[in-house]
Structures
1.
Amino acid sequence: MLAALLLGSVGGAYLALLRLAGEQAEYGIDACGNAAREVIGVSFRLADPRQRLPYLAKRGRNRVFQSAEALWHLAGRRDLGMIGRYSASVRDCSAGGIRLGGSAY
């Protein structure tokens, strides 16, 4: 197993893990027609735990929505019933106003 990477922020972790999967992938998978590369057993620590939420200047910082969105993705949901309560603008991304196609999960 690899040693835990020490990183400065979630954004930095995201980039580092993308780089790791791109350069040192252990497995290639094809789940539901989506090719992906995997590295098993990776972990990371944040040097400053206060940097555990991602921040994009364009999106601003809405911790309530970020938490709700994480739970929504982890639950494998695509419908707008739950997530729409936390962000009205997310409905603009839906063709029919009921669910999102091609969401992260």
2.
Amino acid sequence: MDTEIHWTSGVCTLDLDGYGTLTISGTGAMADYATTADCPWNNAGIISKVTRVIVEDGVTTLSNNGFTGFTNVADVIFNGDVLSAWPSHTTDFANSTVCYVNYSWTGRYTDALATFHFDCGSGLDWTLSGGILAISKTKEGTGTFYNYQNANEVPWRNDVGNITAVVLEDGVADIGSYVLSGINATTLTLAESVTHICGHAFDGSLMTEFTVPASVTTIDAYAFANSGLTAFVTPSFMTEIPEGLFDGSSDLSAVTFATGTTAIGANAFRNTGLTEITFPATLTTIGANAFGNWTAATNVYCSVLDPGTLTWTSSATDFKEGVQFHVVYGTVTQWQSQFPSARVTFVGSTYSSTQPFEIASREDWNTFCDLVSNVSTSICANLTADVDLGSYELPGKCWRSHISRLTRTARDAQAYKMRWLRGFEQWNALHCQFVFQPP
């Protein structure tokens, strides 16, 4: 695009193209002028052509009286940090002019005639009105937030107490780091363009509820650290829990893992308020201090069949003394051997459809019958010794018995099945493996 008109002012240059865009560039300050009439570009025909002004990074000062009367300017884009000086900000441009600036402008030139829209990312601007923080993509860019290093860098940091709702409009690609820090919004609306939740996005947020939308495909480490969330369901794509995901979120009391979860990252649930948690059978890794300082915990339920397949880095320090770590019946000894320094107490209280419940005593039999009475899925059992079953009557006689494997004859199998259906009085059981299924 050819330059139509060119001026020099101080150490800066001004170029007006044929489309009405005036670009100011240079390193330093523009010259000052005693009156608007002294400006070299002060010509009614020229001023009326300017509809957009771009102030490039490096320009430190705009001219005094430089842009009074530029009433046709729709927007001014400041590509650098806040100006060192803008002497005539109260009269330059028009009250309908929108100035797009970054967070460094917060609290500066608040009495400017023009309206400020704050830049907060690549192509992103933000506005706060009526308690609604709106993030919109207004110009070219990736739609991603700036990489804020802490909550003090976020441009709306001084207004978080006034924010009741957050809206990320179409074109916004992520929830940036510390973007929601200190905010206690009752609603968070995300456009389908949002696919990424950055690390520390919710750090310090006071919001108590959040459901990951289907559009999100990536969640970074420490995304919800130090947040006020009270419950969380991990999305289906998250089979590996990122490091520090909820580190320091003391209000978190419930979490549900996605099917197929294999790993929990270091510090993921350190210093949380969880009272119990359920590990899926697919879990293979628990990272360092994943459950460090878990003072509210009372119960952990684990469906992992073979503790030898689990790497648990901080078994000696995770959770707290007295926490009951519920494992599959018959595997308690294996867990104790695999993790001898664990602070938890391993107890057999869960069941598996593939790992038979071993019955080697009358007590085992009674426990198994209680288990049958309280579940609604198939249960395997393996009778490993002749046991006097006594007169314990299994509650719920509607259960069916299916013999899946016997070490004796079919006649013995039939006798066993008949006795089972009648209810037991006293009988030395066969060595067999069987499956009980609800009707």
3.
Amino acid sequence: MIKPLPPITAAAHEAGHALDRGAAAREHLMAQATRIFAAKGFAGASTREICDAAGVNVAAIHYYFGDKEGLYRAVLARPLAEMMAGFGRFDDPALALEDALGMFLAPFLDMVACSDPDDLEAHVMRLHLREMLEPTPAFREITAQIIVPVHNALTTVLARHCGLEQPDTDISRLSFAIVAMANDYCMSREFMQMLAPDVLAGADAPSRSLECLVGYACALVEYEKARRAKHGKAVGKPARSAKTVSKSTPTTPPAAEHASKHAAPHATKRRKTATKTPIKNGASHASSRTASTRRR
């Protein structure tokens, strides 16, 4: 028999409200911190200014984040972590290339263009653009924790579809090209609005753009496969390093090798002649001494 749940007490109800208020205060603090950090950077923003804008006590930063640096890390990391979570299992080996790229590129296009310059997403973009120009230690740390694993997963997918056992430098170049196409929809939205506003207009704009980006990305993969075949980097084998090439490639030029083969027999004959000559001269010298002794 299933026991009925105990009734919610007034104390538990109040505790739930307190948790909700705490979560709301934390979210509001992060939103205001994002706006101020985006405008002034980490060094230029003060904790008092952030707390005044959020309407909380200065001690709130210590309570929720430990210190100013902890708040900054949280502000930087959360939008990246949310975006990475949106990729799903795009690196599943069972997926076709188009499906894998579609899952990977879709989160870039989920960030629709906004006309309000005070929108939170706009501040997030400004903050990350600031970090691109002047990266802080916190941003480098977050990149290593969040972005590097996704980059490694993408290069593994691309290498597999190029017939390679493991990614190499050219596969990284390919991944950067694919990400760059999609990244414009996040980082250059205002520029795109000025140049071609119709690209971002309409409810179906993200789906239409995604379809095109997946097609472009697949074309880049096909180009990379053809380029490798043309330049002797056989599909299915990792590109060899310079050290491997230097060990396996003969250093003797073909012409010198040909001349060496023809000169070898003559050199051998000269060595044999030189070996026999001292013996012959020695025998002649001994014969001469014998004849002289007999005359005496």
